Each structure stands twice: as C-alpha cells, then as structure tokens.
Amino acid sequence: MAIVELTDVTKTYHLGDVDVHALRGVTLNIEAGEFVAIMGASGSGKSTLMNILGCLDTPTSGEYRLAGQPVSRLGSDALAGIRNGTLGFVFQSFNLLSRTDALENVELPLLYADVPAAERRARAREALERVGLGERLHHHPNQMSGGQQQRVAIARALVSRPKVILADEPTGNLDSETSIEVMTLFQDLFATGITILLVTHEPDIANFAGRVVSMKDGRVRSDQRRQPDDARAALARERAQRAAEQAEHTA
Ligand code: ADP
Ligand code: MG
What are the backbone dihedrals phi and psi of residue 52, each rounded to the nearest 5 degrees, phi first? Predict the structure, then answer.
C-alpha cells in the first residue's frame, strides 16, 4: 500500500515581486515500510518537499495523499491532527529543550496530546530504551554527546508511535562514526516496519536506505531502489580504521 502519494506537486514562494519555484512538479509514491533517502544540492527543494510530506506546509498545486487521505487542501487544525497521529520528525539541530532532561523532552509530544502522566512517563522511558538511552533518562542535553542528543530526538519522534519518520539532515551536525551509529538506529526502526524518509546530501548516508530519490531544481532527477549498505558493518569498519590510525599514531 502506498503511504505517500504525491502527484505533480508544486510549491511557489512569493518573495516581494519574485516567484521562487521551489518544487516544479513532483510525483512520488512511497510504499509503507520503505526507507527512502532524498538527496540533492542545497536549494534543490528537499526541505520544501519534507515540509509538505510532513503536513507542515501545503502544495501550491497538485495532490498529496497520506495513508490514503487527501491532505493537500486541509486546514491547519486538520493537518496538525494528521501530523500527531501519523508522523514523527527528526531535525539536524536536535531541537531539544536544554533545561529539561531526556525523559521530559521525549514526553513532550504526549503532553500536547493529553496523554495521562503515568502513561507519558512509561512510554517516554520505553522510547528511550529503544534508542539505547535507558541509562540516561535524567541527563540534560548539555550532559550528552551530539549522537546521544540525536537519539533523544529520535525517541521523541517515536513516542507518539508514528507510521512515518521524517528526518531532515539528521546526521548533518555529527561526525562520521556518530552518523553511522545513528543510521544503525534508523535501520533498526526500518526493520520494525516504520516508513523512513531521510534527507541527506551525503551519498554514504543515502546508501543506508533502500531507495534513493535525487532532486534537482525542484524536480525528481532520479529514483533508484538498491541493496542498502549495512550500517552495523560500516560502523565496525569505521571503528577498526580509527583504531588502526590510533595504533599507528602511538607506535
Ligand atoms: P534544500 O532543502 O534542498 O536546500 P529548500 O527546499 O530549502 O532546498 O529550498 C528550495 C528553494 O526554495 C530555494 O531556492 C530556497 O531559497 C527557496 N525557499 C525555501 N523556503 C522558502 C521560503 N520560506 N520563502 C522563500 N523561498 C524559500
Ligand atoms: Mg534543506
């Protein structure tokens, strides 16, 4: 079943007298359970596409169906409802609240959804355990590494039990090893059946997905299914290489 159906979607921003054609007619179908990487140079329309996919914005023209529902012309309240029930978001900059511990950060989406306190706590704890942070429930963002903060953000995306995770450059602020670590987590989520749409400009990161969609000038330039690279194997190689470099340096 297609979870995402975009048909000839355009998005035009008006900047004073100038029209910026951010999307010039995108048609894209994504099946439930796919792991799709969206690539393309800066300005090619990736974030605009993600905002539409994530029901944060609406197309100028064209159709968008999410899980069979036509969402292209819904108002902001209806869009918010669909977002909360279906989608989880991960951003490059983590967007965690700094004065709040991991557990409370992850609970936040449930607070807005009026989930009772005890259930909020239990589900947040479960989400943090799922991303390997069960021992760090009460750490604050500034007591955690970048990779750990991104894992908290992924737990926050998971806590509302989304069908689709949308991640815009989630490894953009992380070093190579930490990036691959985060990709092992996305591959684990994919294995549980969650649909993942991930924007990146790094080919090595895109290759952990089973399908790579390349954007250029607001259009899909190529769309290829592939055998994904294994993130755990890549992580082992990366660590072995770092250890070898270290050993050489010490010798
Ligand atoms: P990417 O994420 O691939 O870098 P974007 O989707 O952010 O690309 O941007 C695509 C084009 O749309 C760019 O030319 C950008 O300047 C323009 N754009 C994006 N958002 C806005 C906006 N809110 N207002 C005006 N122009 C925008
Ligand atoms: Mg962008």
Answer: -70, -45
Q: Give 197-222 as a DSSP string.
A: EEE-S-HHHHTTSSEEEEEETTEEEE
For residue 176, report the distance from its CA to the centre of ligand 2, in Å: 20
What is the number of the ligand 1 atom nearest to the C-alpha of 14?
Answer: 25
Give the tens place of pLDDT for each residue, 139-156: 999 999 999 999 999 999
Q: How far is the CA of 66 from the centre of ligand 2 (A)?
A: 21
Give pLDDT tens digits for 33-52: 999 999 999 999 999 999 99
Report pLDDT digits (tens) over 157-211. 999 999 999 999 999 999 999 999 999 999 999 999 999 999 999 999 999 999 9
Return the CATH superfamily for domain 2-250.
P-loop containing nucleotide triphosphate hydrolases (3.40.50.300)
Could you state, in order of their start, the residue ranges of all structural domains in the chain?
Answer: 2-250
Atom 7 of ligand 1, nearest CA residue? 47
CA–CA separation, 90 and 179 (whole Å): 14
